[in-house]
Amino acid sequence: MSDESVTNSIEISREEERGHLIEAGELSLWLCCLPSVQTPHQEAPADSNSEESEASPRFQTPEQHSEGETLAEDPLISRGWSIFRVPVHVREVDEGAYNPKIVSIGPSHRDEPGLRAMEAQKLRFLNRLRKRISQLNDAVNLENLENAMEVLEKKTRECYSEHFENINSNDFVQMMVRDGCFIVELLRLYRKKYKGRDVKEPIFETRWMLPTIARDLLMLENQLPMFVLHKIFELTTNFKATTTPLNKLALLFFEPLRPGKDKLTRDIFINTEGECPHLLALFQSTFNPSDSRLPTVRWKTWNQYHRLPGKGWVYNAKTLRDHGVQFVQKSGNLLDIEFKDKILKIPTLFIDDGTSPVLRNLIAYEQSNRYAAPYFSCLAVFLDSIVDTPDDIDILCNAGIIKQVKGGNKELANFLNSLNKELEFDPEDCTITTQIVDINNYCTSWKAKIIKILRSNTDFTRIALTYLSIVQTVISSSNFTSDNSQVVSPSPSPSPSPS
Hints:
Strands 1-3-2 form a three-stranded mixed sheet, covered by helices on one side. Helix content is about 50%, strand content about 5%. The chain has helices at about 5-25, 50-55, 60-65, 90, 115-135, 140-155, 170-195, 210-215, 225-235, 245-255, 265-270, 280-285, 315-320, 355-370, 375-385, 390-400, 410-420, 435-445, 445-455, 460-490; strands at about 325-330, 340, 345, 350, 400-405.
């Protein structure tokens, strides 16, 4: 077969695979991130000993498929991906929200010039961990960690949407050990600090470094698979009855970054004891609303009287207030929104410099994984609808629903509106669709319309009140005159009898 024939065959196969993906509706948002295809006549990677490059090509030739493997078994279209590049069109909304500031984790931002300074700190943490585990267990050493990571290398590579052929096997394993040990040891030290113990660690002595590292560890592109962290934790922990699980260590570390500043509960720790793809997914899983049932109004039953998701899904704050809706702040999960008897209760959202990267990466994760509940995608659509102008921000701030550290109302409105850009959303997956329908049904009721008319037309209201006042005065005067006439009128005196 000629080179041209092979190339054409592969291109046709690629088009068929891409067509299947689009028809299935899976991963279509992220196809723009796929790496280039290596044909049989292209040069192999520099490290020919790489297990991944030999045993698990991203694309296979038609001849390979004919030997028994199917497209469903290919990592390209499997459900194994959990760590993605954020697409260019999404990045354009806020480029800085998706790039780590000081620490690189995993292969996506490896060796970036602005992040190299932290590599020395990773090595320091690794040496610190080696000293500690050598005192606990002589059988565990750096070689054990490297061997364990070698076993997990292929599985780890398959978690990324890119192949990273430029990173050979040895460098990839060393990266897994270095980055994984840094995270595990950091979480342990933070727990000790959290419990009031004296921890001598320079990172904890600065005001900005720890929050910045925490935000970097919650970026979609800056992840290691959770099974890597669990393996390192297992090999470097002297387990006792009081040992804190790794998931709990991570959630305690990220607790200050919760947008609602709500505290972690025992139920949250219990519900997150299972496996998660990575730290960002673990953090996202803690925001399950208390009432997480699917909406009672299904998408297929919606008609022209229902407002479609997107801008205008629900009226903005000013319009809702004009319809008699009262805004009330509540504590708890951001998605625990309640509406009853004209009272709309919304948990407080704290806005500071770290809010944008946290929210945007949570949304990016939900958009990259259709099996992740779209809590923050739903919240983004709701906030985009309820906020149109700085006046809406003012209403929400006065109610205590939004608390901003800095920035004006216009800047904040632009930020909340931008969360909904380039976002795919299905109302059937949203846990607050029922509340939205209830709000819209109330706003179309005759009671809400009368309240809006009375509040919006001040001249009409003034005239109506004046007229009612006059009528009431006339009626009162008429009753008063009638009553007085009965009291004042003398009864006729009897006629004198004749003498």
